[in-house]
Amino acid sequence: MKLQANKKSFSLLLFFISIPTYSSQYEINFFEAFDEVYVLEVIHELKYESNIKKIKILLDQKKWIERYEIQRNFFKPSSINIVSRKPILVWNDKNFVDRNFFIFPKKESSSSKNILKINCPESLLEEVFKWINYPIDEAENRLLSINYDSLEGWIFKFEDFEAKFGKNLDTKKFENLLKTIEYLYEKRKNPSIVDLRSDAGISLKYDK
What we know:
By secondary structure, the protein is α/β, with parallel strands linked by helices. The chain folds into 2 domains: 13-84, no CATH class; 87-205, Cell division protein FtsQ/DivIB (Rossmann fold). The chain has helices at 36-46, 52-60, 122-129, 171-187, and strands at 20-22, 26-31, 65-71, 78-84, 87-91, 95-98, 103-105, 116-119, 143-149, 153-158, 162-166, 193-195, 203-205. A hairpin with a 3-residue loop joins strand 9 (143-149) and strand 10 (153-158).
């Protein structure tokens, strides 16, 4: 399992391969759409638009669209095929980030329930992005959020505990976390905090 939140389950109807709807002259198909808020916005804006140039300008402004194709047909309705970007995390509650590290705005009403949350300064985002796919066996303990604290550094919040990494992320700390998780499951221990900040070793804190 990867060190990231579960990104496969979107309960919206948009999870299907495509959703045909219609503007004045076009059938609009959405592929891999992740949120109906964005889809409905495009449907509304294209509802009465038939000018190809204006349609392209509008779609080019939508940062959540990875690519699109406009097909002109003579014997059946022309179509607009829209492929959505697939966000793997939410950054500072205001932006989505996809697997290619492309950042695009998150609407306030947009759903992000099953997506990893990261809160950190912009200067540190790329650093932590490189580590979120580090392979680690989480069993049933899913990673929920990653936060950077100016005093404590990086804090990875899992369902059952927090892992404190300090201000630097490196392979050794992730390997130690993996070994610690395996140990905890084997011994059936449930600490609230796994502290990886010290070079002297790992400390575990238990709620009283």
